[in-house]
Amino acid sequence: MIHYLKYPKIDKIKWDRCIRNSPNGLIYAYSWYLDIACPGWEALVEDDYTSVMPLPMGIKYGFRYTYPPPYIQQLGLFSTLAITEKKVAEFLSCIPAQYKYVEMNLNEQNPLTHSSYKITKGVTHLLNLATDYKNIHANYSTQTKRNLKKAQAALLIISKDVTPEKIIELFKNNRGKQYSHNPTQYSILNNLMQACLERGVGQSWGVYSKENELCAGAFFLQSNGRAIFLFSGANDTAYEAHAMTFLLNKFIEEHSGQNIIFDFEGSLDTQLARFYKGFGSTETYYPKTRKNTLPMPIKLIKELQFILK
């Protein structure tokens, strides 16, 4: 039987055991990660935590809703048992009616084709690192190989102890100017990075130019047989020297031959998608679901906000 649990009722030990033992377990779904990314989250739990579905919860204008939290690409149903479309649909049907707006990214192991929810596709890019580096490199695109040679000629240096704050600053002072991230989002990101480092499931890498300038940085998560490219920052020097290509190639090289799936976290941006595919990655899709049962006219306002975001 599937039970709806509010935050204080969730047994985190049993919850994390389910995520750890689920074939489709993801680091985003561990209780400590959810605590930082979406405090007060709720959940659907089947039996004695054989299957679970987190419900990131918010309340606005008196209405309860669920949403895709920042720095969490996929959630959905996680289970120690085989996951079927019927089971995914059953969990979705158990989301309480008090949730007047539901927007949820399921995970790639959650089949869903027919539902009362609106379904669209999210995309990520995955690269299997189980083979040796020579074989992986052979599948790089011609452009990626060319950019890597330019980066190597630029005498760039990798550092594995760059602080999360420095990577965030690199982003804020460069590409971040194009976005309207508020300070709270950056605070959540920093807290997530620090928590991952403390638990030994995060790696914070940087690239220095030959003039000893930190020009690029990236933060990786590693758990449940998956390494995730969570966040990065880069300045103009990095773009000119192809420092991010250099950094990602080094990470791939050092983790090649291991039973790890490298997740670039994908993008609908065609330029970024082409960059990720240049490393030989494969597009993989996951369901994005949405249901709006808000009363009029709030329902129409929310639909407009969704279209414009």
Low-confidence stretches: none
Instruction: Based on Cα principal axes, name the global outline.
Output: globular
Distance between the termini: 37 Å
Could you give a short account of the major beta sheet? 10 strands, mixed
Characterization of this structure:
With 309 residues, the protein is α+β, with helices and mostly antiparallel strands. Helices cover 35% and strands 28% of the residues. It contains eleven helices and 14 strands. The strands form two sheets. The chain has a ten-stranded mixed sheet, sandwiched between helices. Strands 1-2-3-6 form a four-stranded antiparallel sheet, covered by helices on one side. A hairpin with a 2-residue loop joins strand 4 and strand 5 (63-66). The radius of gyration is 20 Å and the shape is globular. The two termini are 37 Å apart.
Structure at a glance:
By secondary structure, this protein is α+β, with helices and mostly antiparallel strands. It has helices spanning 12-21, 31-37, 85-93, 133-138, 142-153, 164-172, 183-198, 236-241, 243-255, 270-277, 298-308; strands spanning 2-5, 42-46, 51-55, 57-60, 63-66, 78-79, 99-105, 118-128, 157-159, 202-208, 214-223, 226-234, 261-263, 282-292. It has a ten-stranded mixed beta sheet with strand order 4-5-7-14-8-13-12-11-10-9, with helices on both faces. Strands 1-2-3-6 form a four-stranded antiparallel beta sheet, with helices on one face.
